[in-house]
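Trying the structure run again after the queue cleared.
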Amino acid sequence: HKGVYGIWTRRLADKLGRDALHIKALELGLSADTDMADMIGETRNYTFLSNSDAHSADNIGREYNLLRMADKNFQEFRYCLENIQGRRVLANYGMDPLMGKYHRSYCTRCSTITDDEAPIFSCSHCGNEKMVMGVYDRIMEIRDQQEAHHPLGRPPYKYRVPLKDLPGVGPKLKQKLLAFFFDEINVLEKASIDDITRVAGENVASQIARMRVGRLPINPGGGGKYGRVKKEIDG
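Done. Tokens:
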């Protein structure tokens, strides 16, 4: 992973000095969330963003932000980042970090994605010490707070999973949902579960309901492999 807290530094101030004061926002990345980032004390000074990294058309908008703005222009967006003039980020909508390709540490020898207590520096399965460190493991290594301490006004982080990554949602069903609800955000955020059930069936509707409250079971990703929503959902 290539985030600023990856191999580059443990603290932005260590590398940037007083220039770190000019930073207004941090982008969380697919493998982290607000709770993880707020275990590093200096992040309390920054607005968090959850932005899609659009490697393909299907992935455009898989993460997004709810902003309070008076108009759609860059000045208003800057106010949001600086949390001034009554403008602010109201909510971050991002993939559950477990879905991220670099959430947990990965063994380059036996291809195991660790589920041991973080941070992990060697593989408990084969003893290999050459690991691709996960974002979660890195944060556990460099954090200066045992748990997240959110500054006043920190917006909620709401876990979202793209429709294409939900078990049972193939291309045809996805198009059916989009035809009925107009766009994917409407399906994930606004559509009633009853309406989703009528269009897509009880299983898909149940997954979306669980996703909205952060209770969708996920096998974590690591080493460049995305996490996956578990196919079996217990009651």
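The first strand starts at residue 25 and ends at 27. Worth checking whether this holds up in the mutant runs.
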